[in-house]
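Predict the 3D structure for this chain.
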Amino acid sequence: MSALSESPVLTAVAGGVATVTLNRPQARNALSVALMTELEATLARLAAERDVRVVVLAANGPAFCAGHDLKEMQALDGREAVAAVFAQCSRMMTAIVRLPQPVIARVHAMATAAGCQIVASCDLAVAAETAHFATPGVNIGLFCSTPMVALSRAVGRKQAMEMLLSGRPVDAATAAAWGLVNRAVPAADLDAAVAEYAALIASKSPHAVKVGKEAFYRQAEMGLDDAYAYAARVMTENMLARDAAEGIDAFLAKRPPVWQGC
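Done. Predicted structure below.
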């Protein structure tokens, strides 16, 4: 087995799309410290890559992600060590949200606990119809409190509480109906559906997408008046950008735009 294949996170870039793959299949891609460290570093590197327009987050093996590595967690010594792991996980999830490029989760199989949290943290998500989602911590006496943060921002309160309190998995069709994922498709169509989203987003102005993604999450935490004031400032700056001028000129001239990324 090559050193590359043994890495807990694999990265491939093609056509402006970076595919980042969780690669602990034997552990159902449980979030070990090593995996989270590598994923954080990968996201930081991609954030600076101007040629990367979209990030697809995928996984190898029989599960998308089984959440935290419970064997590793159980071996930790003391409160500070446990707190450090949860803090690292929170940073990793926040890095997904803060990444300038949109992140699409490609969910081929079960996503549980912090794995479900990853899906909820991504900007878009496409799931195979055979995938399931759960926050089952309550079943082992460990309420999914940190997954709750992302989950409660992706679905309605009643749906989030149903998942959190029952611990029961929901299927992909239900996840789509609740807003946890954008689409549930036959497994054979998963790659095509993800590629369709990625290509469409990659064709847009990278500057506008970056500005828009940041603004979306910031305004969502504001009151209505503050959100409108903030969004108006953002849109004013966006209007004065080169890509906006190019996009408007191209629209009026009925030609394809040539984006500068600024």
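Strands lie at 9-14, 17-22, 54-59, 63-65, 103-107, 110-112, 124-128, 132-134, 170-171, 183-185.
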